[in-house]
C-alpha cells in the first residue's frame, strides 16, 4: 500500500493523488492502487527552515511517517520537493523505501548530453541544491531564475497555497518562459504547487514543462504495480 | 485529525478532499485541516453486496477504519453514499464519531414542508433506502428514477469509475432533468461519482443540484474547526 507523506500543501497532495489514479490502468475501483495519505498540513514551512528562518520540520515529518507505518504503508512518496532536503534523514529511520522525486523527474528527461534543465522551485529547494545535486549525478546541468525571478517564483508558490491561482499563473508562466529563453531544453515544475497553477498553460511552453508531481506519480504506479503498463 | 474512509471510488475521494480544502478558510498550509485518508480501493462493491450479488464489504470497511484509528484519526467521514448502509455497524465498533452523509445533505436543504427531493444514487443506496429513511426523519419525501432510469444511473456511475466521464455526464444530466421535471425541488447527487461527472453542468439544472460530497465536506470542516466561518 502506497503511503503518501502529504499536506505540503494540501491541494498539491490532492493533485498528486489524482495523477496516481489517472496513470493507473483500471476499469473499476478494485483495480486501483491502495493508498494511505496523511495530509499533515501542520508540518512547519520547509523553505523557512532551510533558510534558517523557521522551525525544523523533521520531527513532524518523522511523526507523519510513523502514522503511515502504523496504517500499513509499504512504500512512501512525498509530494513536496522541498521536503526532500530531509529525504536521507527520513530514509535512515524507516525500512520502507521512500521514492525520491528528483530521481523520478530524471527518469522522465531525455538524454543528458549537454542538456540544460530549467528548475522552478521554492527558494528552499534551490538553496538546498536538491535538484542541482541529484540531476548532476545523472549528467544534467541546472538553469535557475536570477534573484528577482526566484523571489517572484516563491511569491507565486505562496499565492497557490492561499488559493490565489490566477495571480500565481501569470508569474510562473513568465519565469518558465524566461528559463526556456535562456536555453533550457526542459523546465521542471519542481514544486508541487506549480503544476496546480500551470495546469491550463498551452504550447509551446506546455511542451517543455516537466511536471515533478506527475513524474513521482508514475514512479509510484510502477513501484506498486510492477510489470503493469502505465495508462497514458 | 479527520479520518477519511475512502477509495470508493478513488477519484471520488480526491474530489471530497478537494472540497474539504476549498471550504476551509486558510491562507497557508498550516491553517488547513489535518487529514488521514485511506484510499482502500479494494473494498468489495457496495451495491453488489446490498443486492446479494457480491461479498460483504463490512470486514474491509472495518479493517480500513482500524488503519485510520492507528494513524490517529479523531473523527471519521466516508465519501461513499452506498457504504452508509454499514454506518450503524461501523459506528457500533468505534468510539470515534462517524459523520453521516445523508444528515449532512439534509442540513443543506431548505425547509421540508411538502418538499420532494430527487435522489440520484447507486442501485444499492436506493435498495437499502439510505436516503428515503434518513430524509423522512427530517420531513422530506424522496423522488427516484423509474427502473430504466435507475439502471442508466448505475451504468453512468460505473462509467465514471472507469474514467469515461463524457458518456456518464450525458446520462446523468438526462436523469437529473427527469427528476426535476417530475416535481423535485432539489436533486441530490447521492453517489460520490456523480458530482465528478456533473461538475461542469450549467443553470438551470445546476441550481437545483445538491452535492452530497460537498455537504459532507462542509460538515467535516464544521466538525474539525468548530466556530470557524466556512469559506464560500
From TrEMBL, chains A, B:
Pfam annotation, one family: Asp_Glu_race
InterPro entries (UniProt xref): Asp/Glu/hydantoin_racemase (IPR015942), Asp/Glu_race (IPR001920), Asp_race (IPR004380)
Coiled coil regions in record: none
GO terms, molecular function: amino-acid racemase activity
This protein's UniProt keywords: Isomerase
The keyword Isomerase is assigned to this record: yes
Family stated for the protein in its record: Belongs to the aspartate/glutamate racemases family.
Protein name (Swiss-Prot/TrEMBL): Aspartate/glutamate racemase family protein
Organism of provenance: Methylobacterium terrae
